[in-house]
Amino acid sequence: MKKIGFLSFGHWTPSPHSETRTASDALLQSIDLAVAAEDLGADGAYFRVHHFARQLGSPFPLLAAIGARTKRIEIGTAVIDMRYENPLYMAEDAGAADLIAGGRLQLGISRGSPEQVIDGWRYFGYRPEEGRNDADMARQHAEAFLDVIRGEGFAEPNPRPMFPNPPGKLRVEPHSEGLRDRIWWGAATNSTAVWAAGLGMNLQSSTLKFDETGEPFHIQQANQIRAYREAWKAAGHKREPRVSVSRSIFALMDDRDRMYFGRGGKEQDQIGFIEENVRAIFGRGYAAEPDALVKELARDEAIAEADTLLLTVPNQLGVDYNAHVIESILQHVAPALGWR
User: Fold this and answer.
1) Mean local confidence (pLDDT), 274-295
2) pLDDT confidence of residue 112
3) Which DSSP string do the residues of 37-80 spell out, in sequence order?
């Protein structure tokens, strides 16, 4: 395991039991947690994007703010729902945020999951082409985005521009060199993982995937990663790909940890339906004393296959507690798994 970061969904709720009660709380606490994680030695700060929900929705202002407050930590998403995105406008936002961060963005993009409203992307002005569905549209947006951030000119310049143009066709600005190699695809199936490998995207595999074989989650996920790596090799890409997996992992260090997570309930994979007629498998959570955690996680085949582990954090419990969660894993569990 080369890198360990955290993944926050950025929930907020006005409940008096929540430490994150407003959108402002969610955003500002996300920045503070990224700063704290960097100070603790974590490798990444990642954020989930959902629309029409009391969660983080517009990622680039947040990523830019974190980039301005930190110096080393990777800053990413897991994932941006490409059904909602204008590829060219996204390229501008991503380029600007990456430049502010000094080239530390790691952008996870995907088709996205079921949303809070029916066909929410329609309210953003997008519709699939005739004969195609929303998943096709997401992949089409993704391919357009990947093409644009290469930095090659494609737009015909105005012969009488307001400001002088460089020679040749123009590209979207600002352009951030190297960003194209730091795009990840969140794959729920083996076939989309293979598709992502062909396009030269890194792979993000979450705590759920479509149940394609009936095997335990970590085995299905490990097989997905192996299929991805084989497809990457077959495509002839010159750089080494990166692969991340997400897990809910809590080291029981004190009474707070035992109160929140020491009662069990998620020690087994779960089966459910995230879409009609689509069976999904949800990976188990881990909560135990550090020595027991090390033994359990060593048996997780997908963690062994990946180079990056993202720890999902309960952001509504506040920055201080989540920093404690991250620190506990980094100090008492991660070294035994080969981290650093």
Assistant:
1) 90
2) 86
3) HHHHT-SEEEE---SSSSS---HHHHHHHHHHH-SSSEEEEEEE
Residues spanned by the domain of 27: 3-337
What is the count of structural domains for the chain? 1
Q: Which of 334, 321, 211 is nearest to 275 (CA)?
A: 211
Question: What does the alpha-carbon distance between residue 109 and residue 84 come to, in Å, rounded to a whole number?
Answer: 11
Domain containing 143 — which CATH number? 3.20.20.30
Give the global pTM.
Answer: 0.96
Strands laid side by side in the 208-210 sheet? 208-210, 278-282, 270-275
CA 85 – CA 47 distance, rounded (Å)? 17
Q: CA neighbours within 13 Å on the CB side: how many for 43?
A: 17
Cα dihedral 146, 147, 152, 157 in deg (nearest 10): -120
Instruction: Specify the pLDDT at position 59.
Output: 97
pLDDT band at 131 (very low <50, low <70, confident <90, very high): very high
Q: Identify the pLDDT of residue 263.
A: 82
